Structure formats: structure tokens, C-alpha cells
Amino acid sequence: MSRPVPLGMPSFPRAAAVSTRDARLRANLKHATGTIRARRAAAVAELDDWRQLRAAAAAVKDRTLRHLDHYLVRLEERVTAAGGTVHWAADAAEANRIVTELVRATGEREVVKVKSMVTQEIGLNEALATAGIRAYETDLAELIVQLGDDLPSHLLVPAIHRNRDEIREIFRERMGDWGRPAPEGLTDRPADLAEAARLHLREKFLRAKVAVSGANFMVAETGTMVIVESEGNGRMCLTLPETLISVVGLEKVVPTWRDLEIYLQLLPRSSTAERMNPYTSMWTGTTDGDGPRAFHLVLLDNGRTDTLADTVGRQALRCIRCSACLNVCPVYERAGGHAYGSPYSGPIGAILAPQLRGTAAPLEESLPFASSLCGACYEVCPVAIDIPEVLVHLRERVAEGGEATVRGTRAVVRPARRRALERQVVAGAAWALDRPELLRRGRRLVGPAARYAPRRLPGPGRAWTDGRDLPEIPEESFRDWWARTRAQESPNGGGR
């Protein structure tokens, strides 16, 4: 199963209603996403063949997903031949059990971690803590989130909702609980904050015997794992410990090195607006005298094969976690990542989380509606995921209800009352629109009462207007305006 939603997590409209009133949060998000947007646009503009690369990336992903069983078997063979061990996990519980047992087998009680969305998805840190194993995040933003007892709010910059003053206070108050305390007199200068994190983490890098990571890509041709990052913490985790455990979603496989080249051009420009990532680490199994002595790859399903079965929704599995869609989304910029109730926030989260978890719960049911359908996310996606198309598709699933396959079991997703009411209203509107004369008479009756129109519907209609504003009724209908203006333009009544 997917990682359970935090207890009491409200639906997106209710969570967003709270977060949009946080002025500091909105200011932090507006500044950060605006800066990233501008830099990304400049980096992408440098490549004349960006659209061709984008189309190629989508085509490779689609071909790989169609033959995913073949490439995963090849990957397992290559990893095993190179000295690694492959484990298959059907859901979060199985993945957490496998990792916990692997760490226990080493006799260690702490691990260092490379930033990993998939380990957040399955709640690995919490599972390890329950087993008496402490996991230390080593990415700067993830460290901030961990020390602050917080949750990530952005795919690429998990602490995007925090400003420098907040980070300084978190370091001052919490660093000592997790290891080396913050230096005396710590300021909010970025260089000082980075140095405090560096000193805090260095002792962990040098002491750790076990590391946990994800992977950006897996090359089936050779069994090679690939991680791209900007700080160097990943390189330390991947090379110094004796045991390396990588938890990776099934969809991260690419067939060949030639295919990998496409994504190594697209990902850095789309995510950090860099021509290439400062650190691109690749490893294939184990090598005597170089790097970890034991390598374990945990291949995670956790709803991915169910998503693969949906011919429209499966394109979400192309995602390379660049976060470009978040940085252009007007809904994300105002509501923030926590409102989505998932490690996958923003537009991609609105289509990925409901597919991995199912749409039976109120939170997941609401996520496909957390969008204005403006299409900006599709325009910037480096692998051409048509997020608006999938959103509409998932909205239809929510509205229609019925049976849905969720994590290998059949579940009945019944439409909520408000969805049934919406269908009745739409059916009534369709009936009226098919009768122009009736519509015209009704409009003349409504016109004089327009000034008294309520902002919210009463009774059962209240559920519909909880998340929508009723449109204002114009003083003059389009038909009346058209007849009046045509008469003014032509004495004979002819239009132009």
C-alpha cells in the first residue's frame, strides 16, 4: 500500500483555504518559484532542439512502459551479475520491511540518506525509527525539514516554504538534538547556514556504515544506477558507507545509455536551470576496493502497475521529478505543497497521488480538482506529460464512481452525493439548452432578480459552492446585446 495520509489530513480545498491565508508562506513561494521560473526559461532557451529532446524523452518513456517487464528483468540480471542484490517490493510495507531487515543485518542503528522522493512516499524514516534505527537526511533542504519536524512542500526544494530567518532558528534550536549543534552566533547569511549544515553532517558521513538512496534513473543495459544532485552529499553517501541500499520505483528504468543521454540534458535545465548537475553519480553493482562492499536494490511497485494499466493516466509515470510544473502552477504558488497531503505536490502530485493511492478517500478524491486547467504545467514538462488531460480523466473517474483497481485489489469508489447532484444539475442544464425559446424566456425572468442572486447556494447546493464561486449574472444577456448592437450598426439589421 502507499504511505498512509497523515491522520486528519483534510481535502485539498479545506487545506488550501488555510494555507492561502498565510502571508509569509505565499511571499516565500512567490519569490522562490518566480526566481526558478525565470532561470529555467533562460536555460531551456539555450537549446535549439529542446522540443525534439522533449518528444524523444516522452517516446522513450512510453516505449519502456509498454515493455516494462522486459526491461526490469534485464535490469535485475545486470545488477546481479555486477555483484548487487535485487529485492522486489509490492507495496510500502514490504519495502520498509526489506530495508529494515537489511540494516539490522549489518548491526548498525543509524543510516545516512540521499534525498529520495520514493522513501518519503513509503514513510521509510518512520518505519526505521519504529525499529530503533535513526535515519539522517543529508540534503540541506531535507535536513531543514527533518530538524523542523516538518514535511516537504516541493519536489526539488523541500524547504521552499521556509525563509532564512526560520532556517536559522531551526538550526539553533534543533541541531544539537540530532548531532553537532549550530555554531554560536549563527546568522541568517546563506554561507553561514550552509557551513553550519556542513559541519553538522561531516561527522555523520565519516561515521556511517549504511546509506539509503533512491535513483533518478536505472539503465537496464548495464544495471547502472544514476543519481544527480547539486551539493555533494549524495556522492558522500554513495561512496563512503560499507552498505548501500537503493529504493527505486519501477518506472525509473531506461533501456540504454543512449536513452539516458536525453534525460541528462533535460533534467538539470528543467529543475535547477543548470546545463548539467554539479554531481552526477553512477554505479554498477559493487567493485572490490572502491565504494560500498554490499549493494541492494529494492524495486518498488506501490500502485505503479495499477497506474500502468490506465492508458490515459500512465503518462504520469514518465515523470522525472524535475518540479518544473510546480514552479509555473498558480494553484501551487498560492496554496503551497502541504495542502496536497503527499510528497508529490503540485500538478504532478494531483495526478500521481490519486493513482498510486486510489480515489476512494476524500483527500485523493479532491486532488484532481486542485487545478485551473490552464495548461502551463504541460508546456514546461520536459517529458510532455499532458497533466490537464489526466486531471480531467481522473475527475471523470471520481464523478462516475464504480469499481477501480487499487494496489492489486478491487475497490468500489462510490460517487459522493455532491457528484450525483452535479450530474443532475448538468442534465437539467443540457435539457434547457436544447430548448432556445424556453431559455430565452427564463433569462428574461432572471434578469430583474440578478441583483438579489446569492453568493452561495442553499440546502444541498451548498456542497457544490463550497469550492466554487457562483458567476455573476450580467444585466444584459448576450442575445439582447447582439440584437441591440447589430441594430445600431446597420439600419437594415445586417451584421458585419
From TrEMBL:
What's in the keyword line of the UniProt record?
4Fe-4S, Electron transport, Iron, Iron-sulfur, Metal-binding, Repeat, Transport
What's the protein name?
Answer: Lactate utilization protein
The UniProt record lists the Lactate utilization protein B C-terminal domain at: 394-484
Q: Name one GO molecular function term.
A: metal ion binding
Family annotation (PANTHER family): LACTATE UTILIZATION PROTEIN B
**GO biological process terms on file:** lactate metabolic process
Q: Domain LUD, which positions?
A: 74-286
| Domain called 4Fe-4S ferredoxin-type: residue spans | 316-385
Which domain of life, per UniProt? Bacteria
